[in-house]
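Predict structure. Chain length: 418.
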Amino acid sequence: MLSIADTAIIGNVTTHATESLAAVGIVGSFISMLIWVFGQIRSAISSIISQYLGANKLNEIKTLPAQAILIIVIGSIIIVLLSYPFAETIFKFYNATNLVLSYCVIYFKIRIIGFPFSLFVFAVFGVFRGLQNTFYPMVIAITGASLNIVLDYLFVYGFADIIPAMHIQGAALASVIAQVVMAILAFTLLLTKTSISLNVRFPFHSEMKTVLSMIGNLFIRTIALNVALYMATSYATSYGNTQIAAYTIGVNIWLLGAFMIDGYSSAGNILSGKLYGAKDYKNLLLLGNQLIKYGIVVGCIMTVIGGVFYNSIGRLFIKEKEVLEQFYNVFYIVLLTQPINAISFIFDGMFKGMGKMKYLRNLLLLSTGLVFVPSLLFFDYLELELTAIWITFTLWILARGFPLVYAFRKKFVPLANG
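Prediction complete.
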């Protein structure tokens, strides 16, 4: 929601809207990569806590979250210090040039300040999920997203003579403030609403090796995921400012759909971990079957809604005809992928909940190396431009999702019936 709010607000500025939107898309892609790589701490913490909860051994795990959160926050600060001085070099690597490159650097140098706060929030969400509590993460997320939208509008466009219009800098500042507020709220709710302490105690918990192993597997997996996102963004940028602006709109809607289905993915994550820890394979299989149905229904609803408001959605983000034309040419593919995305992301969450990080790592490495990369090269060779990118995304999601469903049923159908 932080990125999509920036996209919608920036796309409607009166000065250099296309270049600004392109910069937000490029920087958003890079920051999303960082968050997905290092934010895997959420899944690791959630998996361990939910399995211990299912085995009625929660007291044995209470010191682990604080240790894991400390490690990931220190790591995030190091990343900020390393990336900040090389902002221009980073975005040249994404094929950004001239005004787009200048806007990328301006936006990034403010936006990256919120990175440690985002990772802290992700880690706390992992604790709440492990405890089977999705209410407080919802409150935190809605608060942050709502605040960001309000601040985006005030800071980008200005307010009377009180707040000056800050253009792309305002969008970045709004995101950082929202991330800080979310971190404060997460900290407060964790301390007041759970028995989990943030006092770091040593030596490290015996499960820290398991957590680090999970993070390592997910780290490698997410590198593969971000190779795909980097290639897509880089190719879109190389096609021109109009194409990268249209791609930015499309990918943010695609990611919004992914995170909307994340509710069911999170349910699969926390419940599968608990049921797997309790060795309740019958209900674990029932959970998987039910989530497939929910995923297909929700994905189809999102596709239908997008189809009904096909033209209106594009105009929410930008008014420039050239960008809208490019966007409308590929938006139907974004919509058609939603049911496929839903199944893939739901089972991804379930496998994380059960701690099957190695399988997820290997699957994404194979699907990226054997499906995404050659597909993008082939369809780009056919000069399909943005259509090439979205066809490739569709094939990639298919290669990621259906092996998970097959592996899940192959393992747990016999155990549930045994």
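Summary: Residues 2-417 form one domain.
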